[in-house]
Amino acid sequence: MNKRMKILICYDGSTCADDAIQDLPRAGLPREADALIVGVQDQWLPSTVGANAAVPTIVSTNSFAARRAPTQLEPQANIGIAHEKKLEEASKMVSSSFPEWDIETVKLKGSPARKIIRQAKTYDADLIVLGSHGRTESKRFALGSVSQKVSNEAVSSVRVVRGQAWKNGSPSRLLIGLDGSLSSHAAVEEVARRMWIMGSEVRLIAVRDAFEDNYQGVCSYLDAARKILERAELTVTELIEDGDPKQIIVSSAEEWGADCIFLGANDEENSSENLLLGGVASAIIARAHCNVEIVRRKAG
Asked: What CA–CA distance (Å, rounded) separates 246 from 283?
């Protein structure tokens, strides 16, 4: 009996969070799965503030409070009610696309990125889904800081979604960056495991520098990856490039019109010098025009 996939969906009521939910049917996810929708109300006021005290509506990038001038105040209880309503709305949106999913919601308080990472570990999530930017009203919060931190530090795979104009039911274009590691092989296997719309295409890009200029090794790796994907009835094309991986992958994805870039994440046994991990993956997440999914192999 196959284990049901466990998906943690981050939701803060922002347009990007809505985009992340609307993207789910195009992510190749199973018809049956367990989903946990997480909303984090950021706490930045001292804990000595009483329950009935007025607090600023705008508190962070992931506050569920409505957009208003920073000086406007609202009782804490009303913020909590709005928070719960947003989660209920998100649950209905997910359920409309995946009626057979078992969906739960949880409301947390604290630092959004830290809470998401911790909750994903507790939940034993296979995949975290979140928008590329959360709700923000203040320049003192860096746009995209939550998605970057979660992508870098979570033990689960992470899908960072950018709003795009899709045709319902149209095939997907998926680009996979390869570097010869076990992690990039895991990205290939994950794409092959998913349920894609008929006619979906995959482009494999191998940056030769990542293979220490071993051309024969590059060709062998690409051939093995192509066979895995073709068995999943995906159309596959291959590219071998020289240069900076982050620039090559981002520019190729945009030129080709990719819907999502898949990358393998670092493994403890892999060299820290692996070119498609660490700072390169972070740069791709920040610069890509499309969705980016970081695939992590789970122990066992």
From this structure: 7
User: Which residue, 223, 230, 221, is CA-closest to 276?
Assistant: 221
Q: How many residues does this entry show for the chain?
A: 300
Which pLDDT tens digit goes with each residue over 173-187? 999 999 888 888 999
> Can you tell me the distance from the alpha carbon of 283 to that of 276, in angstroms, rounded to the nearest whole number?
10
pTM above threshold 0.85: no
C-alpha radius of gyration, the chain, whole number: 20
Report the relative pairing of strands 102-109 and 33-41 from DSSP bridges.
Answer: parallel
CB 183 within 8 A of CB 277: yes
Q: Which helix (H) or strand (E) holds 250?
A: helix 245-256
DSSP bridge pairs for 75:
54
Q: How far apart (Å, rounded) are the C-alpha atoms in residues 141 and 127?
A: 26
Phi and psi angles of residue 114, each rounded to the nearest 5 degrees, phi first: -65, -45
- Which structure tokens are listed for 210? 């990542």
Q: What type of residue sits at position 5?
A: M
